[in-house]
What we know:
Blueprint (H helix, E strand, L loop, with lengths): L31 E6 L2 E6 L12 E5 L1 E3 L3 E5 L5 E11 L3 H6 L3 E9 L8 E8 L2 E13 L2 E8 L6 H8 L16 H4 L7 E4 L11 H9 L3 E7 L22 E6 H9 L4 E4 L1 H19 L14 H4 L22 H13 L4 E6 L12 E7 L6 H10 L3 H11 L10 E5 L1
Parallel strand pairs: 1-17, 3-12, 3-14, 4-11, 14-16
Antiparallel strand pairs: 1-2, 5-6, 6-7, 7-10, 8-9, 9-10, 12-13, 13-15, 16-17
Helix pairs in contact: 5-8, 6-8
Amino acid sequence: xxxxxxxxxxxxxxxxxxxxxxxxxxxxxxxxxLIYNQGHISHTTFSHLPExxxxxxxxxxxxxxxxxARLHFRKDTGALIEVFCLEPALPADYALMFQxxxxxxxxxxxxxxxxxxxxxxARTIVINGQELTLxxxxxxxxxxxxxxxxxxxxxxxxxxxxxxxxxxxxIPPYLNRETEESDxxxxxxxxxxxxxxxxxxxxxxxxxERVLQAITARGIERAELTLHVxxxxxxxxxxxxxxxxxxxxxxxxxPRSVIEALVRHGGECTxxxxxxxxxxxxxxxxxxxxxANPDISELEMKVAQWEPYDNTEHQQPAGTTSNTAPQxxxxxxxxxxxxxxxxxxxxxxxxxxxxxxxxxxxxRYHIVKRMITNFHQPQSTLLLLVSxxxxxxxxxDIYNYALDNDFRFLxxxxxxxxxx
Length: 420
């Protein structure tokens, strides 16, 4: 079947409200870990994860850090307006944005937008004992969001400080509760570094320093890349077939050291979380673009949603059934080497581009050989990604096992190690 015609209704399962973890466990690595190993399912606790990973292998993690992206303003009429910062517009670079002083512009979602058609919103904030006025001006509508300009009357205070002073951490809407002080810590991975996400890469929430040390002790190399998770991660699939679902484009940053590590390990790795998976698999298609056009720009490297399926040579081979794990693709080393050569020619030690890739049954994985991931919402693109990894019908077995064995679901829930 053409992946575009997959019916999302086929990826439903019963998820009782009480199985959605509203809060994390007190000890991160005490969470349950389901092990799916070539059709066999068992479980343990996350602290034992390193024992199930090959010695001397490579693990790749997303080091993005969730920002306090929700800002609240109250109009003179009393109407409460929520401005949700999605992606920087001016400056567009994340690092520059958080260093910005005095003024910046973001692509935003606006809650109660009907009550704010025009005019300037303002609120008072206090930073380092200094009282400032923060204003927001709605400039124009963009595709699915709004451009909003913010100004604050200080040339010494950065935008990062503004968000920390008055922003709210955007926990997932399906938790059905307000953000609490504890979320500022528990909704970040212990290795988060690069500010920019509006949602956590939740598979990483289970890691502790103890687990990371045990991974190192097994000779497992760790590498970090960055994909800033957008609000699109919670966007439900509303179309009957996934062709009608548009993936949000997300910015990725991949250091040269990650590409070199992948090459040293034969172009294979364990990926922590679906954000790492999408970034790593996008590298294959970026490499293809470079091989076709060595002078390509980073902007042209963006991986489009259906790009993997537009070239039938790279799709899953005909004859693969829904009860079979997907066939392994050929080595991605030529594509990874092409990225390194491009970096050499352009005198850069990193790759900055974007991906809109959707991974669904019919996709052929190129780089990710083992995946650590949480349990995802019914009828979600993340469930499609898992299904593509383990073989179409196998996800039923995995999720039924988790439901039967009291696993906790979604962002603050338990996790799985998948080895097809």
